[in-house]
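does this look right to u?? alpha-D-galactopyranose version
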Amino acid sequence: MTPPATAARKLFSDILGGEPEVIVRSPGRVNLIGDHTDYNDGFVMPMAIDRSLRIALRTRQDGRVRVYSQAYDEWTRFDASTPTTQDGWRAYIEGVASELGAAGLDVQGWEGVVVSSIPSGAGLSSSAALEMASARAFVEASQSRWDPIEMAELGRRAENDWVGVKCGIMDQLSSAMGRRGHAMLIDCRSLDIRHVPIPHGAAVIVLDTGTRRDLRDSAYNDRRAACEAAAQALSVPALRDVDASDLDRAGEILDDELLRRVRHVVRENQATVMLADAFDREDIAEAGRLMSASHSSLRDDFEVSSVPLDAMVEVAISTEGCLGARMTGGGFGGSAVALVDRDATEVFTDEALTRYRQRSGLEGSALLAEAVDGTTREFPA
Ligand code: GLA
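got this back:
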């Protein structure tokens, strides 16, 4: 068993006594390109990363669910058939239980512990990992079938309706469907996924700015509402249906701010498909350029970056070994992601973080991310 799975097992024994019957694992993710495109039916290219959340559990016959979170040092306790809590970390587990019930599953009880190595609020989808691991835990306890795409959609519904974040499908799908050594080009309309190998010469480095912003803040939902308003004004089902040649006409219909939002989505969709092609050709220089250009669009047109994110991206791009960098995820804080020459990762990391500290006065941190498989049952294997 891997050391983290051992940690989950040990915590289970310490807290609940005895041995877990099942250990499930769900990874966090970093998005390489395609931000604020998923809820516009567009393209994204994330990868599941080697930072994971685990739940060690034992089934219960009385329909009760009891879960202890190590990170919060708190419990949630509820009836599997009547979850109630809609705030904090508990909402993710109870929301998933509620959606599973609504989908017709005879939801069974269990008790367990949650152990995670995914920093929360860093833009690495710790919440989607909790949703997917909870879904897997319920599926195991209820002896049902695991369908990763269906479960990703269910996790998203839990987050939309139970937690109140109008997120798209990217995070849940990455956590459910990642593949070792690969990024995933996802068409968020058809949910087709193409696993794209990470080029050999490149490493993916997550650069945490050390600043946080809760996605439940209204800015995320505001951006989504703006995109929906723009699609309606342009008479298209979603901004996915707008392409570069439509932008002039869009300029006659939309105000300047909405036009910039649309321009970001149009460019970002195009760049996402192009990044997958660049990875196929192992053209890491072009891949880096596409990522850096995406940051400018998120900063200037979509306006979801922040002063620390801009500082991190700028120092990264001008540090030796860097091929390109951008903010990643919802924005307003959290992490940037850099594509770096494989041979230069250590020097790059040290230098970028030192320069970030000098420039912003903030303590950042870095993580060399490897792409891993999506949600699995680790034990029994
Ligand atoms: C958050 C959401 C995702 C996606 C990104 C931005 O991570 O959960 O669905 O919209 O922001 O790309």
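Residues 35-36, 38-39, 167-168, 170-171, 329-330 surround alpha-D-galactopyranose (CB under 6 Å). idk if thats expected tbh
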